[in-house]
From TrEMBL, chain A:
Coiled coil: none
Main location: membrane
Topology term for the membrane: Peripheral membrane protein
UniProt feature, compositional bias: Polar residues: 820-832
Family in the record: Belongs to the adaptor complexes large subunit family.
Keywords associated with the record: Membrane, Protein transport, Transport
Organism: Echinops telfairi (Lesser hedgehog tenrec)
Protein name from the UniProt record: AP-4 complex subunit epsilon-1
Domain of life per record: Eukaryota
Cellular compartment(s): Endomembrane system
Keyword Transport applies: yes
Region (Disordered): 751-777, 811-832
Pfam families found in the cross-reference section: Adaptin_N, AP4E_app_platf
Domain annotation AP-4 complex subunit epsilon-1 C-terminal: ranges: 1041-1144
UniProtKB/TrEMBL annotation, chain B:
InterPro entries named among the record's database cross-references: AP1_sigma, AP_complex_ssu, AP_mu_sigma_su, Clathrin_sm-chain_CS, Longin-like_dom_sf
Membrane topology: Peripheral membrane protein
Species of origin: Echinops telfairi (Lesser hedgehog tenrec)
Residues annotated as domain AP complex mu/sigma subunit: 1-141
UniProt-annotated location(s): Cytoplasmic vesicle membrane; Golgi apparatus; Membrane, Clathrin-coated pit
Main location: membrane
Record has Protein transport as a keyword: yes
Superkingdom assignment: Eukaryota
Protein name: AP complex subunit sigma
Family note: Belongs to the adaptor complexes small subunit family.
UniProt keywords, alphabetically: Cytoplasmic vesicle, Golgi apparatus, Membrane, Protein transport, Transport
């Protein structure tokens, strides 16, 4: 039949000319339909576009008058609308008629209404404002009893309907799903489907209706012809399945329907449908394809679901035998489905055969689809490509570019290191022939990717990339040049190879630039200028001066954009230090310091100033160091003076953006503790951190995530190795830390002002910065490794990292004390596996073990070494310590202020001992409950460690359910420096169990007492988080440790200290002798007795971390003369009062 | 889902256009112009499928008239080709040996038929009989309406 159509249409041009003679049915109709006919005829008679335009404008102005005239009847209006629509189709503006189209739809009789609706759907688009005027008409028509009106309304709804008005018609349309007429139901389902597409969340509930319609279907199918509405129901499911497949939502939502779909498909394939739905004797092909696609989506990666459909797929493959397009359409869909679902070898075999049929078909359409199918399955089954390799080769030189392109796509998928040259060659050939931008951009990207992945040698790589840049031009994806430059800059493992590649690039660009009148895209020129600027020094023959003059020539070219010129000047700037004095550079400076482009002018000025100071220029622009990471003071600490000045003058302190926002959000929770937890431990300058949570200085004011982001963003040209294999960020980072190179990427802001900032940014890093940088690196690494573990995890990680450092420090100390000790006896406490997760879990136990070992080692050694001191150590009565002798070595004279009954302490200590590092190593205070409520109780005790005071919080969950996000936070105070220690790794406290949290505390400013307050956060299952506040008091004595020095050292130090306090204290009768006083002091205040000479005693101590204080005692009858000296002004005063209390009180 | 359908003559005159996805007027014109150029430049024996921008284009020429559909990535090209053919069959049946002039002079009818066949970019009714029945019904009612009016 199509042949007939074809014949008729072929005869058309002839008919067309004779139309005025009235021959043929078309002409008869044309003469009948009056005005449009004459318009069309007059247009066809015209010869030029200009005449047509004139005629249509004339027509439109006539129409304009007619439509707005009040005398125009609706019938005339209908006719006008048709003509208007025709003019619009020809590309002329007929917007004046839009409102009349709406009116016509509203007021006309059926015939007129139909044209009105059509005109509206042709004229307006979904977001047109006039569309709102149509809503009422649509609602009215939906409620009409006239079938045709309802149909028209539904049609227009599915064509254009304002999204926000959907609720107004939704119930009406849902009603129509139960309509007695099939056509109405069908249109209603499609309208709903359309709503699903444009506003899925407004019609979520209709999925249930679709599903219901589907389930009804099963029974209906066999007895009734009324199946089509449900076919559309499938589409709803289809979309749903789509969404679920891609959105990773609960895909099982529709899996239960698989059985129904399979049954339906079986019935359709089996020819159970009425013949009406056959298309060229194939039963319901549209429905079959729809079903196959749904099955493909449902069976993806799902073995059980897939197994349900194997039979029916097999049947479909078998049945589709007819040599007709529509059978092939079904076959193609079938093959697609077979390769999408969980594989079954028999089916795959059959599908592969089908693909073969397609590929080998003489029909070009089928061949094309065959190639497409091959492309789709090639990764699963590369052998198929081998089977059809001859066809593929033929297709590669096919006259139809579409076939060629598909073949290239196929080849792209099977490229490897061996065939890359050929394939890229073919792709480049195609590239040179095509003109369509979309294709070029697409293909260029693929070539660049292949070249980077599989390049066999340098020359090939550079040449291919040259082709990519010159053809791809400025339309290509900016990643391509960026990646290329990064690749050049970072190089590979082989230094010589890098050198060669760079040299080759430089040479090839110089050759290209020598070509007269050659045109290169701006992007390519930018790439060239960067490479020449960086790597011209590798050249032997040509001097930098020659390169500069080439660049200068380009700069003078008018066709070059300002952006490229900026790149060019940057390149010249880099080359300038390598020449002694260049005339060209002078010319350039002269030329561009007066440039109208401010950016170029600035660069020229920079160059000018740099040139005046050759040494600076050389240090700022080192040769061949593009990839060496620059040290940049990211914190802009050099501005601190400026900031301080501003603050002094009353400026408001800077708050980072997120903090401002947070403050705005929660008025009562002004303090944002979390980020500061981070910066306290990570940076060396906590002093600059204001405890109020406001950063006065510039360092580390953001939280770590923010910093991390900034630093990664900045890696435009230097930094991360991305290409040539999948080495990511991580290995690179590791290697930099290992090499001790402080890899600090250029922060974004600085990068933007690169040239301006260079003198500042390239100077050597202040040494103080280094440790904190390393910390940051680690954090960055950690956050990239553990990303997504939740907010608590950052803190945990940090705590861990800190522990590592801490342990390292300690280890070295132990080594010092025991020089003769074989190192192998020490377990390496700086765990190599510090970043491994299991470490994370084992840490607690681990530490305990190690400490124990250490202690036992110590004790052996000690017995001989510190013999002299032993007599001074007294076994404390109220403490259960197994080996008091240990403490002599650890410089920790024992003092226990606790008055609580020993038994209960012992009990609680043993509990703590099980969970914590061995508490027997250090003294600790009794356990005190700090706070509690019905759910938890928290107690704490202090461990006086050598280098800090360790606060241990043990939080017990008394409830029967587990608690989440449990965390102890300490409010920052001026007095103390708090570092979160190794934390209980699990933020979850299980029912009736205890978690331990630790903070190491050091005193920042000496004072007799300070309060440490904080709160415990936790979250009960399914409820809000709860905060429980607590506070404990710390006294100065908690931070006093003995200072072991000799008498000579004491003498030297004594003279060097300026702050001195002297006082007479009357001693109590009981301890009138000096030795007993000293002993008491030694124990109660943790002082070290340096020497005792006659009536004089010398003692030394230090306030953690390292503020020494020396004490001199002399006894006169019952008066004790105390004389204290220290480097710290406040310390002697405080200590004196403590001594006084001890001496007088006891 | 079908994005749009175009009918244009070999001379590059647009005869019918139906858009199933909201597209601005300017963009429409640009797309029509570009696509017509691409399709008209193709030789008779070439493949009926194109990859154009991010869409797949399926076209077929009947006499001097090109029928051209743009579909999305996962849609089936061959069935779209058959869809075009079914539309031509419907036109042929309705007009009785359809020719380009029928479509030019009665383009609104061609739209009505298309609307009964496709709705919102998907096949509404695959049965030739029922589509034609729906059209005839509407035509009949129209005449009644006209008679009344």
């Amino acid at each position: 039949m199509s042949d007939i159509v074809e014949k008729t249409l072929t005869a058309l041009p002839g008919l067309f000319l004779q139309s005025q003679l009235g021959g043929g049915p078309a002409a008869a109709k044309a003469s009948f339909s009056s005005r449009l006919g004459s318009l069309v005829r007059s247009i066809t008679l015209l010869t030029s576009k200009h005449e047509e335009e004139k005629l249509i404008q004339q027509e439109l102005s006539n129409l304009k008058v007619t439509v707005s005239a009040p005398t125009t009847t609706l019938k005339m209006m209908k006719e006008c609308m048709v003509r208007l629509a025709y003019c619009e189709m020809l590309g002329y503006d007929a917007s004046f008629g839009y409102i009349h189209a709406i009116k016509l739809a509203q007021q006309g009789n059926l015939f007129e209404k139909r044209v009105g609706y059509l005109a509206v759907s042709l004229f307006l688009h979904e977001n047109h404002e006039l569309l709102l005027l149509l809503v009422n008409t649509v609602i009215k028509d939906l409620q009409s009893t006239n079938l045709v009106e309802v149909c028209m309304a539904l049609t227009v709804i599915s064509q254009i309907f304002p999204r926000e008005m959907i609720p107004a018609v939704l119930p009406l349309i849902e009603d129509k799903l139960q309509h007695s007429k099939e056509i109405i139901r069908r249109k209603a389902v499609l309208a709903l489907y359309k709503f699903h597409l444009i506003a899925p969340n407004q019609v979520q509930h209709i999925h249930i209706k679709f599903r219901k319609a589907l389930c009804d279907r099963d029974s209906l199918l066999t007895r009734s012809v009324d199946w089509t509405p449900t076919a559309q129901g499938f589409q709803g499911c289809d979309v749903e399945a789509d969404r679920q497949a891609f959105g990773q939502e609960n895909a099982s939502g529709y899996k239960d329907l698989t059985g129904s779909f399979v049954t339906i498909l079986k019935q359709v394939v089996g020819g159970k449908l009425p013949v009406d739905f056959n298309y060229h004797s194939v039963p319901a092909p549209w429905l079959q394809i729809q079903l196959l696609r749904i099955l493909g989506l449902l069976g993806k990666d799902d073995r059980r679901t897939s197994e349900l459909m194997y039979d029916v797929l097999d049947e479909s493959l078998r049945r589709a035998e007819l040599n007709h397009n529509v059978t092939y359409a079904i076959l193609f869909e079938c093959v697609h489905t077979v390769y999408s679902i969980y594989p079954k070898s028999e089916l795959l075999e059959k599908a592969a055969k089908c693909i073969g049929k397609f590929v080998l078909s003489p029909k070009i359409n089928l061949k094309y689809l065959g190639l497409k199918a091959l492309t789709y399955v090639i990764q699963q089954d590369p052998s198929l490509a081998l089977q059809h390799q001859m066809t593929i080769i033929e297709c590669l030189d096919h006259s139809d570019p579409i076939i060629k392109r598909e073949t290239l796509e196929l080849l792209n998928r099977i490229t490897n290191a061996q065939n890359v040259t050929v394939i890229v060659q073919k792709m480049l050939e195609y590239l040179h022939q095509s003109k369509e931008e979309y294709i070029i951009v697409n293909l260029v990207g693929k070539i660049a990717e292949l070249a980077e992945k599989y390049a066999p040698d340098n020359a090939w790589f550079i040449q291919t990339m040259n082709a990519v840049f010159s053809v791809g031009g400025d339309a290509m994806h900016p990643d391509i040049p960026n990646n290329f430059l990064r690749l050049l800059a970072e190089g590979f493992d082989d230094e010589a190879e890098d050198h060669q590649l760079r040299l080759y690039a430089v040479q090839s660009y110089l050759t290209l630039l020598d070509v007269e009148n050659a045109f290169y895209p701006q992007r390519f020129l930018q790439v060239m200028s960067w490479v020449l600027g960086e790597y011209s020094y590798l050249l032997d023959k040509e001097t930098p001066d020659e390169v500069i003059s080439k660049l200068y020539k380009l700069l003078m070219n008018n066709s070059i954009s300002a952006e490229t010129k900026a790149w060019l000047i940057a390149a010249v700037t880099k080359l300038t230090p390598q020449v002694h004095s260049s005339h060209t550079v002078e010319k350039l400076i002269q030329e561009f310091t007066t440039s109208l482009d401010t950016c170029l002018r600035q660069q020229a000025f920079e160059l000018k100033h740099l040139q005046e100071n050759v040494d600076l220029m050389k240090s700022v622009l080192p040769v061949g160091k593009s990839c060496d990471d620059m040290m940049v003071d990211a914190s802009l600490s050099f501005l601190d003076g400026f900031v301080a000045e501003g603050l002094c003058q009353g400026a408001a302190p800077y708050k980072p953006h997120h903090q401002r926002q947070e403050e705005k959000l929660s008025q009562e929770k002004v303090l944002n503790f979390e980020p500061y937890g981070l910066s306290f431990s990570s940076s060396g300058f906590t002093g600059r951190q204001s405890p109020a949570g406001i950063s006065l200085g510039s360092d580390a004011s953001g939280n770590s995530a923010e910093t991390g982001l900034k630093e990664t963003n900045s890696l435009k040209l230097e930094g991360i190795k991305k290409l040539w294999g999948k080495e990511g960020y991580l290995p690179k980072k590791e290697s930099t830390t290992r090499d001790g190179v402080d890899a600090l990427p250029l922060p974004q802001e600085t990068a933007a002002l690169e040239n301006v900032d260079q003198p500042v940014t390239k100077k050597d890093p202040p040494p103080a910065l280094t440790p904190s940088r390393e910390e940051k690196e680690k954090q960055l690494l950690a956050s990239s490794l553990f990303v997504g573990l939740g907010s608590e995890s950052t803190i945990n990680l940090l705590g861990k990292a800190d522990t590592v450092c801490h342990k390292f420090r300690r280890k070295s100390k132990t080594k010092e004390t025991k020089s003769g000790e074989p190192t192998s006896a020490h377990p390496n406490s700086l765990s190599n596996a510090s970043y491994e997760e299991d470490y994370y879990l084992d840490t607690l136990q681990d530490i305990g073990d190690k400490e124990l070992k250490k202690i036992s080692l110590d004790s052996e050694l000690l017995d001989s070494e510190s013999f002299t001191e032993l007599h001074m150590v007294e076994k404390p009565s109220d403490c259960n310590l197994p080996r008091p002798s240990l403490f002599a070595d650890n410089n920790l004279e024992i003092f226990h202020p606790s008055q609580s009954p020993g038994a209960s302490v012992a009990n609680e200590v043993s509990l703590a001992a099980a969970l914590l590092e061995d508490p027997t190593e250090h003294m600790h205070s009794p356990v005190i409950e700090v706070c509690s409520n019905e759910t938890i109780s928290a107690s704490s005790y202090k461990i006086w460690k050598d280098d800090c005071l360790l606060m241990v919080w043990s939080v017990t969950n008394k409830s029967g359910s587990e608690l989440k996000s449990a965390n102890v936070e300490i409010a920052p105070t001026e007095k103390f420096k708090i570092t979160e220690q190794l934390e209980s790794c699990l933020p979850v406290i299980e029912a009736e169990s205890t978690n331990i949290f630790q903070h190491s505390v050091q005193m920042e400013n000496p004072s007799t007492e300070g309060t440490l307050s904080g709160f415990i956060n936790y979250q009960k299952m399914d409820s809000h988080s709860v905060q429980l506040e607590f506070s404990v008091t710390l006294s100065l004595l908690d931070f006093i440790r003995p200072l072991k020095i000799s008498t000579e050292d004491f003498g030297k130090l004594w003279l060097s200290f300026a702050n001195d306090v002297k006082q007479n204290v009357k001693m109590s009768a009981s301890q009138a002798a000096l030795p007993s006083v000293l002993k008491t002091l030694q124990h109660k205040l943790r002082l070290h007795v340096v020497d005792m000479i006659g009536t004089e005693g010398l003692l030394a101590c230090q306030l953690l971390p390292s503020r020494p204080c020396l004490l001199h005692f002399r006894v006169h009858a019952d008066v004790l003369v105390l004389w204290l000296r220290s480097s710290c002004s406040a310390l002697p005063d405080y200590l004196l009062s403590q001594c006084q209390r001890v001496v007088e009180g006891s | 889902m079908m994005r749009f359908m175009l009918l244009f003559s070999r001379q590059g005159k647009l005869r019918l256009q139906k858009w199933y996805l909201a597209t601005s007027d300017k963009e429409r014109k640009k797309m029509v112009r570009e696509l017509m150029q691409v399709v008209l430049a193709r030789k008779p024996k070439m493949c009926s499928f194109l990859e154009w921008r991010d869409l797949k284009v399926v076209y077929k020429r009947y006499a001097s008239l090109y029928f051209c559909c743009a579909i999305e990535g996962q849609d089936n090209e061959l069935i779209t080709l058959e869809l075009i053919h079914r539309y031509v069959e419907l036109l042929d049946k309705y007009f009785g040996s359809v020719c380009e002039l029928d479509i030019i002079f009665n383009f609104e009818k061609a739209y009505f038929i298309l609307d009964e066949f496709l709705m919102g970019g998907d096949v509404q009714d695959t049965s030739k009989k029922s589509v034609l029945k729906a059209i005839e019904q509407a035509d009949l009612l129209q005449e009644v309406g006209v008679g009344r009016g």
